[in-house]
Design goal:
This is ADP-ribosylation factor-related protein. GO terms for molecular function: GTP binding; GTPase activity; metal ion binding. Belongs to the small GTPase superfamily. Arf family. Keywords: GTP-binding, Magnesium, Metal-binding, Nucleotide-binding. It is built from five helices and six strands, in the order E-H-E-E-H-E-H-E-H-E-H. The protein has 191 residues and is an alpha/beta fold. A six-stranded mixed β-sheet has the order 2-3-1-4-5-6, sandwiched between helices. The structure holds guanosine-5'-triphosphate (GTP) and magnesium ion (MG). The site of magnesium ion (MG) has 6 residues, from helix 1.
Length: 191
């Protein structure tokens, strides 16, 4: 972990978005510093590089109160990490709205989605099954997606889901890279 990646490692852009207060900045600095920072609603975006296995992730954390600016960060995104507060069922409609809006944007065509169901340490959080049902995630056919229950106030090694989130991201960006390479090859040979 940490930001000291070697130059040979591929760098992947991760877009960390979600409604305000879901825990994005907490999660980002938990990954970067292995500690809980006192986060206030972000009024700009934070960018940090995190190393995991053979990958370097450049993570863009864009505040939930800055939804109108999310679009300016879409270009060249390798994976979307959408953070939700899994204890807040009244937010589900807004989350569905934001996801649908995002999926309509051509810049994000085929970009995989990691939905991070945060705050699992709180009482009665939604688990994957409920989230998949409520957000109708099974209707997503044109990109890989995965729901990861998580507790961002716990370190990667404490088993709160952050490690599994990193594993998913590294697997999925590798998969996407291979698929993109294959597509390029097919395009070249069909010319
Ligand atoms: N109990 C609990 N609290 C959390 C967790 N993750 C974040 N929080 C708290 O949730 C609050 C909001 O966290 P932030 O990281 O500021 O949320 P954000 O998504 O960056 O919010 P914006 O910048 O406004 O978009 C803070 O008080 C965090 O301490 C978690 O896993 N469990
Ligand atoms: Mg924030």
């Amino acid at each position: 972990m940490g930001g000291s990646g070697s130059k040979e490692m591929a760098c992947h852009k991760i877009l960390l978005i979600g409604l305000s207060g879901s825990g994005k900045t907490t999660l980002l600095y938990q990954l970067k510093l292995q500690q809980v920072v006192i986060a206030v609603p972000s009024i700009a975006f934070n960018v940090e590089k995190i190393q995991h296995a053979d990958c370097i992730f450049e993570i863009f954390d864009v505040g939930g109160n800055l939804k109108s600016t999310w679009i300016h960060h879409y270009e060249a995104t390798d994976a979307i990490a959408f953070v939700m507060d899994a204890t807040n069922r009244t937010n589900l409609k807004d989350i569905k709205f934001e996801l649908d809006l995002m999926f309509k944007d051509k810049t994000l065509d085929g970009v995989p989605l990691l939905l991070i169901a945060n705050k699992q340490d709180q009482s009665n959080p939604m688990k994957s099954e409920e989230i998949i049902r409520e957000l109708q995630l099974n209707d997503i056919k044109d990109r890989d997606w995965h729901v990861q229950p998580c507790t961002a106030i716990q370190t990667v090694s404490e088993g709160g889901g952050l490690h599994d989130a990193l594993v998913y991201l590294s697997d999925i960006v590798e998969k996407k890279k291979k698929a993109d390479k294959k597509k390029k090859k097919v395009k070249k040979t069909s010319k």
